[in-house]
Design a protein that fits this description.
Blueprint lengths: L18 E7 L5 H13 L4 E7 H7 L6 H4 L2 H12 L7 E4 L12 H4 L7 H4 L2 H7 L4 H6 L9 E3 L5 H4 L8 E7 H6 L15 H10 L2 H14 L6 E3 L10 E4 L4 E4 L4 H16 L14 E6 L8 E6 L3 E2 L5 E4 L7 H11 L3 H6 L16 H5 L13 H9 L2 E2 L13 H14 L15 H7 L2 H22 L1
Parallel strand pairs: 1-2, 1-3, 11-13
Antiparallel strand pairs: 3-12, 4-12, 5-9, 5-10, 6-7, 7-8
Helix pairs in contact: 7-14
Length: 472
């Protein structure tokens, strides 16, 4: 296994003469990694070097905000890109489309601004084809913006198989129920569905019998269920914290999250549980409680759980992030050359994978299919490969909005305040205030400009219906 070692404090004699490819990235690429990457580039005869800069650090340094949630709002990122365009050290690559828990609520704003390069012609070049062919076609399709490729897939660990840490060949379910616990306390769950609120009295009675550890693990897993629900796909993002708007895949309509009846009943039930049971010391433990969400019927646990609601997830975006080439890139040849290496060179893939304390590599912004063969990356499924991953992704139900780009148009500026308020009420994985676990839907509706939300919902729904009609 390749292990990073300390780097020299001095520079190569030719170092100052090299062109520098500046890369703004959400992931941390350490000084030591950069040293070894540049040494390797020199060893193979490249006449450029790379420099990685943290986007989050830049957002904070530019005093956009004093916390990550606010700093990652779409309009703040747009402001940063605009400043970078006119800076003396303008970047050549920028990580974008971070589909995760933040305030980046829009997909098309950077492309519409004219700051992102259309990659179509690049993909037709020899090196561009190497980049494109490094990922399944479905991954590229899922990241298109207005049917145009602006994003080069990266951070492929962000696809759904990583969230569930599963074997690609295993079935995944929205909910599983622990057989040992229900059998231990004599509860019949044979007719239970994902609508656990229908069994409120039984669950409360059962939790009063369970041990403190079993209760803590159960409540922790219930928190995860607040961010996902069967048949509901966020208009943008990987979970409900990213957007107040969702697509009901059964009716193919855009709705407000808080007008989805089953989800609201589920949240109100969780709120009731948290009003009588709190996590011990606010510590979350996703171990074997009564419930386990986003679970996999793997050979290791298939006999230990009752598995409920398969095919609950609809594929929309297959990657967590993508690299974009800004239109103000002044060294396109070296940029494309470096990208072609990033996605085809096993040694560079290793160098871009962070070496964790346990001796394993964490996911890096390279080609994880290359890493999987060497067992370098933590949590990759055992059968992770290009072909298996492609088949896995193609087996998903596709969202009604798959390969479609919503736009907020004239509502873009208003969405910043809406998203901040949305995150104020729906906060997950924060333990500084246990009350934050509760999603006060009534308070949400009272503080939000609910009529404005309905107006935006209708605007988004018109877009979706037009898209669906074109697809017929």
């Amino acid at each position: 296994m390749f292990i990073l070692i300390g780097c020299s404090s001095g520079n190569d004699d030719r170092d100052d003469e090299l062109d520098e490819i500046i890369i703004y990235d959400y992931s941390s690429v350490t000084v030591s990694q950069q040293y070894h990457i540049n040494k390797y580039l020199s060893d193979i005869g490249k006449d450029y070097k790379v420099k990685y800069v943290s986007i989050l650090d830049e957002l904070l340094l530019n005093e956009v905000s004093n916390d990550n949630e606010k700093s990652e709002l779409s309009n703040n990122i747009l402001d940063l890109w605009t400043k970078l365009e006119n800076s003396t050290n303008a970047p050549h690559l920028i990580s974008a489309n971070q589909i995760t828990y933040n305030g980046d609520f829009s997909e098309d704003y950077l492309a519409n601004s004219g700051l992102m390069m259309d990659l179509s012609q690049i993909y037709e070049t020899e090196k561009g084809k190497l980049i494109y062919d490094s990922f399944p076609k479905i991954v590229h399709e899922s990241m298109m913006i207005n049917n145009t490729p602006y994003l080069i897939p990266t951070y492929m660990m962000g696809t759904w198989d990583y969230y569930s840490e599963q074997m690609l060949s295993d079935e995944q379910y929205y909910l599983s129920i622990n057989k040992d616990i229900v059998e231990k306390y004599g509860v019949d769950v044979s007719d239970w569905t994902y609508r656990i609120y229908e069994h409120e009295d039984e669950i409360i009675t059962l939790m009063n019998k369970m041990s403190d550890t079993e209760v803590d693990k159960t409540m922790s897993n219930l928190l995860l269920s607040m961010n996902y629900y069967p048949y509901l796909t966020p208009v943008y993002g990987s979970g409900f914290v990213s957007s107040p708007f969702v697509i009901d895949e059964r009716t193919k309509e855009v709705k407000l999250l808080v007008e989805c009846d089953e989800y609201v009943k589920h949240i109100n039930f969780i709120n009731k549980l948290f009003s009588i049971v709190f996590l011990d010391d606010g510590i979350m433990d996703f171990g074997d409680g009564l419930f386990k969400y986003l679970c996999v019927e793997s050979k290791d646990i298939k006999d230990d759980y009752y598995f409920i609601q398969p095919d609950y997830y609809y594929l929309d975006n297959a990657a967590l992030r993508g690299y974009s080439i800004p239109t103000f890139n002044d060294n396109l040849d070296d940029t494309v050359d470096y990208l072609s290496l990033v996605y085809t060179d096993p040694r560079l893939a290793e160098l871009l994978a962070y070496n964790g304390e346990d001796g394993k590599m964490d996911n890096g912004n390279s080609n994880n299919y290359l890493l999987a063969e060497n067992d370098l990356v933590k949590d990759l499924p055992e059968d992770y490969s290009f072909d298996n991953h492609e088949k896995y992704l193609n087996d998903f139900n596709k969202s009604s909005a798959y390969n479609f780009t919503f736009t907020y148009g004239e509502y873009f500026d208003e969405m910043s305040d809406i998203n901040l308020l949305h995150n104020k009420y729906l906060v997950i994985y924060k333990i500084d205030d246990l009350q934050k676990y509760m999603f006060d839907i009534q308070g949400y509706k009272e503080e939000m400009d609910i009529e404005l939300l309905y107006e935006i919902r209708n605007y988004l729904n018109v877009q979706l219906q037009e898209h669906l009609n074109r697809e017929k």
